[in-house]
Structure formats: structure tokens, C-alpha cells
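Input sequence (388 aa), recorded before submission:
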Amino acid sequence: MPRRGAPGRRPRVRRFALPRSAGSRDGDSRPTAQGTAPKLSFVLCSRNDAYAGNALWRLQTALNVLGAQVAQLGDTAPGVEAVVCDWGSPERPLREVLALRPEAAAITRVVEVSPAVAAAHQHDSPFAEVVANNAAIRRARGRYIARIDQDTLVGGAFLRRVLARPTPARSGGRCELLFSRRRSIPYAFARRSVGFERVCAFLDTYHRILPREGVGQRPWFDAPVGVVVLHRDHWEACRGYDERMLYWGFMETDLALRIQMRGRVVDLERELGCSFYHLGHTRSRFQVSPRCKNPRVAPRVFAPNDPSWGLVDYDLPVRRVAARPVDAAPVPQGEALRFLPAVVAERVWQGLIAVSRLARGVARGDRVEATAADPSWGWLGEPESPPR
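Predicted structure, C-alpha cell format:
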């Protein structure tokens, strides 16, 4: 057997865990020098509740993995932040209960929306995701703003390539939305709410073979979102997500269709591959969400919200998160291999779904209805014509 470092043997590189020497250096991954705007802001929204299982664990895992990836880049990361909108947590706010490693806490800020303000803006929806995301977008400082779900883990390939791109202070030319789908982490693994190192070990083992979600959708960007990236000027021009879409689904597709009115949607996977990983949180294969669905109709205007979008008229507190101890239990020998059957089953299932989507696309075309009038928005009735 060749010695370590001998010719012909490449040392195994851990892609998703911090080097051991970096984990204890509090503050090493500060996003930027004092007073300097970050290059890239990630925005997320969540709440301190038990939505679809252990929502708190999924959020803090996403933030800890993001913090680890940024810390691995070191001085090559020209500024990254994470802005989390805490949408009306009923008891303790998220910043008091999140268990973040130092490198994750250093880049994270929380926008706090009180339960009273949240209730006033979500109407009969249990969670106004579009308004919550817009509130985070309006308070993000990055030149580029990337929206991810609260349970999506960000891979290093995306960070390395996107942060290496030139970042103009002004957007210039036409609107350009960068979109990527995501890969699926099986529920059989995610439901265990394991420690950070065990999550990293799982991704180290399976990141290349985890199945993509949304393959076969028409249009192609009508898929579960891995990431949506826009220059901040374009977020401001289109006024964010349509805040009438208080229910579930279609919010990203609507945004992409509006961007196409003045620009284009770019498939990040063709350039970077798919390096976003979604923590599964339901055993059901057929009911994706019990929430009411948004109408799937083509948008009529580029900027549907009024100038106060994203709760900009509210003086919402934006606070830092303190670092707290994180489960750092060692990874049992060979643990990741125990989940190989679950990964194979997930690939088979996602493959079957892709075939059914392709067949439906051939038979019915895009899943977007063309309409000459605005849809009924339930809580709002027939809306007035929004500003252009």
C-alpha cells in the first residue's frame, strides 16, 4: 500500500467541512472590512416554529454550512453575508435560539418582524414568504442578492465562481436573473437532525450523485429553487417578489417571467453544475405542501408592488446572532454508507417524476396560464392595476 502522499494517491479533500484549525477562530470570516458593502448577500426567511419537523435545525444547518464554505475561501471571499427574515416568531426570536458556529454567526444578520406586523400582512396565509423575502432583500447590503430556502445547503463551487465574477457598482445593461435548481437530500437522513460534522460527511460522500429536483419542468425554471440571483439594481427595478402571492408556489416562476420582459434568465447549472442541496422534510411523495396554491398565470406587469414593498416603511430591527455551541460529535465510522439505499431510492423517485413531467410537457406545454385579466387573489379580491 502506498504511503500517504506517495505518487499515485491523492489525499481525500473534505469539501463541506472546515479545516480543523479554522473552527475555533472566532471572527476570522467577517464578511468585509468595516463600512464596506459585501459583494454577495444571501437572503432567507423562517420562523421559530415546528414547520414540517425540525425547522430550526434545518435553518441553522444551512447557515453553518454557508459559514463554513465562506471561511474556507478565506481572503478570496470579497464579502458575503446572510440576512434572515424572522417572520413573526411566536415566542422567542430566532436569534436567541439559533446554534451557529463562529464563522456562521459572523456573517449572519436577522431582520425581526413582530407577530402583529406579520399577521397584518399575511392575511389568511400561514406564512407570507414573498413579503418576508422582500423584507430581507430590502435590508441586504450586497451588490448581488441571492435568495435561497431556509433548508438549502450551499456548495463551494457556486461561491468560488460567482465571487470571482466582476461586480459593477451599477448593473448596466438588461436584467439578468441567475437560476439554479437543487439536489435532494433524502428525508431518511434529514429527519435525524444530526450534528454539523455528520451533515458534512454525508455531503462529502454523496454530493455528486444526489438527484436534481425539478428535471423536466416546463418552463425549465419552474422548478424547486436552489438559488435565484439578481443584481440589487434589478431587485429594486422589479420590486421583488409579487406580494399578492401569499400562498405556496410559482413565486420564482413569476419573478423569472417578469425579468424576461426586460432581460433573460440564465441557467447557472450549465456553467457551474448543481451545488445546492435541499434537506428533505416530508415523507409524503405526493402532497408537496398542505398550503393553498398561488394561481399559475403569466404576469402582466414588470413591477407589481408599490414603492413600499418589503416593509420598507417599517423600522424593523436588524440584529446580529451570537455564536453558540454546536453539536460536534465525531462521525461514526462508515455512517454515511448506511444511507446509500435512501440515496438510491431518492434517485429512482426523482427519475420517475422527471419522466412524468416530460410526458406532461409534451402533451400540455408550459405550466403557465395565459390570461388577459388579473387572477382572483382570494384575500384581496380583484386587484387594481398595479404600478408599472
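Checked by second reader. Residues 40-302+325-364 form a domain with the Spore Coat Polysaccharide Biosynthesis Protein SpsA; Chain A fold (CATH 3.90.550).
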